[in-house]
What does this fold into?
Amino acid sequence: MTPTPPERTRNWTARHIPDQSGRTAVVTGANSGIGYVTARELARHGAKVILACRSEERGSRALARLASEVPSAAAEFRSLDLGDLASVRNFADRYEREGDGRLDLLVNNAGVMALPYRRTADGFETQFGVNHLGHFALTGLLLPRLLTTPGARVVTVASMLHLLANIDIADLNSEQRYRRWPAYARSKTANLLFTHELARRLADTGSDVVAAAAHPGYASTNLQSAGPRMSGRRATAALMATGNRLVGQSAEAGALPTLYAATAPGVRPDSFTGPRFLAWRGAPAPSPRAGWTRNDVASERLWAASETLTGVTYAALKG
It folds into this structure.
């Protein structure tokens, strides 16, 4: 059967997920929101799923919830703090030691949004450090398993808010000037540039690993309120909560573009999947993106800077 290309697929739901039996998936930030739904639906369709979360308490609670909703699930929690490269390396080392030799799907889902200025354990601005550098390092460290697993995919969750700002290669950590929303937008642009460059490098080596991106539109999760709560902006937190109730779609709906990019036949490398209606809500469909997220020079420069900052080099993709 010829795979149905994304632009011709309408009304796709989680019921259309192909059988995932025998496949292994790692989902970062799987303790809540679209990350949890992604992990749950992959497990429901037969995948072995690793919930990679920063908080042991929340991760364990999510695992218990998943087991109650999908009693047949093969799932486990493993600790991963994307804001600490030592934790990222520990996670990858453990996966190498205890894994079954394969990794079919890596979903780079975890993220933070519009936080007050803070730094990660390694000194990076938190939004850039967690949303991009942590996932860049994780993907590079897990790449050997992805490359040896037929049909593997890397799906990175970006945002339509990337349209607000391009990266500043001379100030990746926003040290010259920090504004929380442009910094978030730059981190999401970095997600798309990373996907673009990873797809290009995989193609150059002849690998069949698919690197794709997705976004949830406006999904009602706790992501929107975390930043205002951290900075004590109660009015903004209340406004975000109201927006979630009035215009946000559910986490179940918001996870569909990620699940589509992760499992649907015919997903193309460097594709960007989001909700169909105004990239806001609805069934998965190809999503618009800024032209700067397909700039080869920018993606190469960001890649080189990311290797330097993280110390993770993608040796298997070097010529």
